[in-house]
Amino acid sequence: MIDFSVNRVSAMRFWVRLWSLPLVPITILLVVFIIPAFFADFIAPHDPYVPNLRARLQPPVGFGGTWEYILGTDRLGRDILSRILHGAWYVLAVSMIGIAVGVVVGTTLGLIAGYARGWFDGLVMRLVDISLALPAMLLALALAAAIGASFLSVVIVVGFALWAYFARQVRAEVLLLRNSDFVARSQVAGSSHTRILFRHILPNVMNTIVVLATLQVGIAIMLDASLSFLGIGIPRPTPTWGLLVSDGRDFIATDWWISFFPGLAILLTVMSANMLGDWLREQLDPRQRQI
Amino acid sequence: MGLRTALMCKKFKEYAVLKYLARRVASSLFALLVITVIVFLLSHLSGNPVDALLPDDASQEQIDAFIRDWGLDKPLWQQYATFLGNAVHGDFGTSLKWQGEDAMGFVLDRMPATLQLGGLAILMSVVIALPLGVAAAVYKGTPIDNSAQMFALLGQSMPNFWLGIVLIWVFSVWLGWLPTSGMGTIYHAILPAIAIAWFQVSALARLTRSAMLEVLDAEYIKLARVKGVSESVVIWKHALRNAAVVPLTYFGILAASILTGSVVIETVFSWPGMGWVAIEAIRGRDFPVVQAVIIAYAVIYMISNLVVDLLYVAIDPRIRND
Amino acid sequence: MLHKKSKFSGAPKRVLTSMLLAGTILTAAGVTHAAMASEKVVIAVSPLGADSNLYWTTTGAFIFPSMQTLVGNDAATGKYDNSQLAESWEHNEDFTSWTFKLHPNAEFNGEWGPVTAADVVHSFNIHTGDDAKLSGIKQLKTATITAVDDHTVRFDLPSPVPNFLFSHAGRGSLVIYSKAQFEAEGIEGYETAPAGSGPFQYEGREVGQSLTFTTIKDHWTGVSPEFDEIEFRWVSEPSTRFAMLSAGEAHAVTLPRDLREDAAEAGQSVLSSSAGAMQSTMLFTGQFMNPEAEETRDARTYAWADVRVREAVNRALDRDGILEVLYGEGVEALPVYTMDPRFPGYSQDLADRFDADYGYDPEKAMALLKEAGYPDAFDNAAIPLVVTSLAGNPEFAQMAELVQAYLDVVGIQTEMREQDWATGNTAIRGFTADFVTPMRNAPVRPAALGVQIFFTDQASPHLNVGDPEINDLGAKLVSETNPALRDELLQGMFTRIFDGYAHIPMAAVPASVVVNSDLVEGWSFPGSTSSGLSHYELIDLK
């Protein structure tokens, strides 16, 4: 059972173990994902949107290309590197906002459901069932056809695909916590339900949420890519990585660099996010509960 | 299982299982009802089948006749009531796109293809993930552990359509081992199944690893070691047996994720299953088939979850009280 | 820890062995699979909009090679010929009555007897029924048909239709089914295996996957393909089709432009149709040229209601560059969408003026915009560009992206709308379209037909640009029978469209197919059908 004392111990271990920070994933995340997302305007060598028809399909450096276009150019002569750098922001925004939607909705419902039980719990669990039973991809197709594909529709789909996992996990944690001594003590002491939920229970499920959210970064990015593949992602010419990979997929066997480098950016980011998530879990979740 | 539970009379156990089952079925049916509303609204908000199914130069008479024939001129609630009434009898109407085909019948015809692919994908992910997870646990903290986890992670870090196309080029074109696409022999299913399965390997291997670690730490395993049972027997017989229920606990999410993956992968490999039907039907605004296919997906998901739940109950009766 | 490893090593070995074994089996099986039977031709194309054996219930995108129409197209020139069921035809002076004489020896495959006028009448009746969805069927619906004798049929039309042969050739508004089969087996007979009179016989289909036909020995036309079977495979991913071609699984595939180039570099052959098969354009939607636009589609709020903006849009585009990127070799610039040198109404004058009036001139574009007060003087300055792809036109998405980039350079604001074809159509048909969208004309319709569909209120009111003069000319054209006057009317319409910058014309494009150069020697087809492909009997194997 989790209680404050265990939590304090784990917090201490957290600081003690800071030296074991996974430097490789963090560096990769910074270089490939975070820094480009905020500073693409300063580091990108070319405009990611303007075609240069005289420089179509330039191969990358080392494969017959020049330093002008380090990672080569696409079919319209746009610099792949610049497009990846500029795309980072959209990938970051979609995954962060999408996950935030999932976290807020899922956590709130999960918290209340697990704490209040009764009919509300039943209702939330049915909603979780419904959400898990509807393939996100099909919902996305229908949604895109109904309201059109946009940044918003992609964020909605990502949030929809993720919230149920948070709700389920948080509820399960709360079920364990609500019977614990410190909650009982607070109830006896006359604390309001809101206070118990947000002051006592929420901090204790926070670890789980952080870990789960980190691990969902990969799922969000993959979902964004799949939506682009189906032609219902963030509209062109926004160079989200999913669109770049999807646009270049026809040329994997020939002009491979068009989809390879954006694919690599996705690969590095998702792997690093997952490794970071694993590390976080080890630090924050001493019992290695699985998700 | 506690002594007290074991002593509970059999009759009560059977009654409780039945009650539990009834409750689960009822809640699944409720979920399905809500899904029909969502699906119906979304598909009807998403534009008119006229525009997907009639040519650019269709005349007004052609359009009017089409709208009348398909009841598209009635109010939405009325269309929904008709739809629900028929759906209860298994009648989802006839396909607009595949002329003369019964919508649900058409979807059910394609279902074996998807289940076949999904089944193979589940099998593959389990067959790959279990040894990976076991190896990672046994060699915890060594390079073997790290590379096993890296390999597992790789599948989760590549867009599946991209992986699918790379697989086609490597194994079908350059090596010439397997057919590129389509359906027919078991060989046709291998590449798409890999493209779907790899994504799940990571999560499964991770679960297996931690379950193994827990088991390897358990008292009875320590006891077995003390008794001098050989280490490989300990691992393969005692530990793995206990860790093997991991895919079961994870089955619900696994099934959902593999069904979702099939939507994209079936398109890449021209695999004519439900995912392919779903995309074609939504693009063609074939409402009856869209509704049928999404309901079919939901039913598959719910049945698999129900089965998992029942297996749980069989294993651990305490869950019923949850 | 260490001692564990040694004891554990037995198990992985077993796993490894079984994996190797599995690998060997797979390899062996793969080799046998790759060895292809040379007598079966496989063509992989993107999936059709409809999957049905009842041709009239589809939009007419694909004519089965087992079926025939009345009029054929010459493989080399695309000109109408009598290679299909009609041996000869004639029309009266004002084009309201057309008489076709059938080949006397024409017969249906599979013992369903000779092809007679009764079969044509029967087919006409089912094609014009309520469940018909065929493109261009509207025209046939107004006709009456008479069987003059066993081998002669006459169509009588309420108004002059000089282009009547078009519907009976590659466009395929009417394909001939067997009446005898219908009487014996009913509609189910057609659904399971429609009898046709072409050089191939329908064998079967795998829904969503493929369609198979066998070659007929001693076909009544004397045509004899050099293979026994032909299979069409529906594969939506271009890279998968390319892989099929490269792996030798397909003889011929359709590919987007860049992949065609890659395939050619890899040693495959690209074959183009002998004539232009498709025209592409971007259309301004709404009745933007209507001085009194209706409230529902108040064209005056669109930036392109101003002719100076429309000219600026056209001037901003470097067509040579765009067409090179989108289509590559064999493509020609198109002065006016729906105008074609093969059909009446062609204006050499407009073709000659095209460079001067539509040529790439960003400075001029900017000057025009300045003069128009763009963007400040407009309520809706941003132009929504539709990003969409359509089966057969994968380049449409790129087209919008390129146009946007060029418009951006001269300062025209744009907004990209990613939407599927059906959504765009819903808006257009509902008169709520407020965007600039790619559009195609395939197969290229006779100019008189095309111009009415895309620019006037005659054939498709929702695509009417609202110009009173163009509508007026269109109305006159409907009843005009004198070829010279018709020519003049059409040229008048095209000139008006051209001078008013009423659209953004793009290209006249041949149909093309990529064949595996190890398997196929050649194949000529005129690009006269919706899919661009036809004349499969001419596929020349190595």
Question: What's the structural blueprint in terms of helices and strands?
Answer:
The complex is a heterotrimer of chains A (291), B (322) and C (542).
Chain A: H1 4-16, H2 23-43, H3 80-116, H4 118-133, H5 136-147, H6 151-178, H7 181-188, H8 193-229, H9 241-248, H10 257-284
Helix pairs in contact in A: 2-3, 2-10, 3-4, 3-6, 3-8, 4-6, 5-6, 6-8, 7-8, 8-9, 8-10, 9-10
Chain B: H1 3-7, H2 10-45, H3 49-53, H4 60-69, H5 76-88, H6 103-138, H7 143-156, H8 160-174, H9 186-216, H10 219-226, H11 231-243, H12 246-249, H13 251-268, H14 274-283, H15 287-315
Helix pairs in contact in B: 2-15, 6-7, 6-9, 6-13, 6-15, 7-9, 8-9, 8-13, 9-11, 9-13, 13-14, 13-15, 14-15
Chain C: H1 2-8, H2 10-34, E1 40-45, E2 72-73, E3 80-81, E4 86-91, E5 97-102, H3 117-127, H4 137-141, E6 144-149, E7 152-156, H5 164-168, H6 179-192, E8 200-206, E9 210-215, E10 229-234, H7 238-246, E11 252-253, H8 257-265, E12 269-284, H9 307-315, H10 319-326, E13 332-333, H11 348-358, H12 362-372, E14 383-387, H13 396-410, E15 414-418, H14 421-429, E16 436-441, H15 447-455, H16 468-479, H17 483-499, E17 503-515, E18 520-522, E19 540-541
Parallel strand pairs in C: 1-10, 1-11, 14-15
Antiparallel strand pairs in C: 2-3, 4-5, 5-7, 6-7, 8-9, 9-10, 11-17, 12-16, 12-17, 13-17, 18-19
Helix pairs in contact in C: 9-12, 15-16, 15-17, 16-17
Could you explain how this protein is built, in words?
Chain C: Residues 1-34 form the signal peptide. Chain C: One of its GO terms (molecular function) is peptide transmembrane transporter activity. Chain C: This is Periplasmic dipeptide transport protein. The complex is a heterotrimer of chains A (291), B (322) and C (542). With 291 residues, chain A is an all-alpha fold. Chain A has one domain (20-288): Orthogonal Bundle (MetI-like fold), CATH 1.10.3720. Chain A is 71% helix and 0% strand. Chain A contains ten helices and no strands. Chain A has helices at residues 4-16, 23-43, 80-116, 118-133, 136-147, 151-178, 181-188, 193-229, 241-248, 257-284. The longest helix of chain A has 37 residues, at 80-116. The two termini of chain A are 18 Å apart. Mean pLDDT of chain A is 83; it is low at 1-6. With 322 residues, chain B is mainly alpha-helical. Chain B folds into two domains: 13-89, no CATH class; 103-320, Orthogonal Bundle (MetI-like fold), CATH 1.10.3720. In chain B, 77% of the residues lie in helices and 0% in strands. Chain B has 15 helices and no strands. In chain B, helix 8 (160-174) packs across helix 9 (186-216) and helix 14 (274-283) runs antiparallel to helix 15 (287-315). Residues 317-322 of chain B have low confidence and may be disordered. Chain C is of the alpha+beta class and 542 residues long. Chain C folds into two domains: 37-268 and 516-541, Periplasmic binding protein-like II (D-Maltodextrin-Binding Protein, domain 2, 3-Layer(aba) Sandwich); 276-509, Dipeptide-binding Protein, Domain 3 (Dipeptide-binding Protein, domain 3), CATH 3.10.105.10. In chain C, the strands form five sheets. In chain C, strands 1, 8, 9, 10, 11, 12, 13, 16 and 17 form a nine-stranded mixed beta sheet that branches. In chain C, strands 4-5-7-6 form a four-stranded antiparallel beta sheet, with helices on one face. In chain C, helix 9 (307-315) packs antiparallel against helix 12 (362-372), helix 15 (447-455) crosses helix 17 and helix 16 packs antiparallel against helix 17 (483-499). Chain C is globular and about 75 Å long. At the B-C interface, helix 3, helix 4, helix 6, helix 8 and helix 11 of B face helix 1, helix 2, helix 4, helix 7 and helix 14 of C.
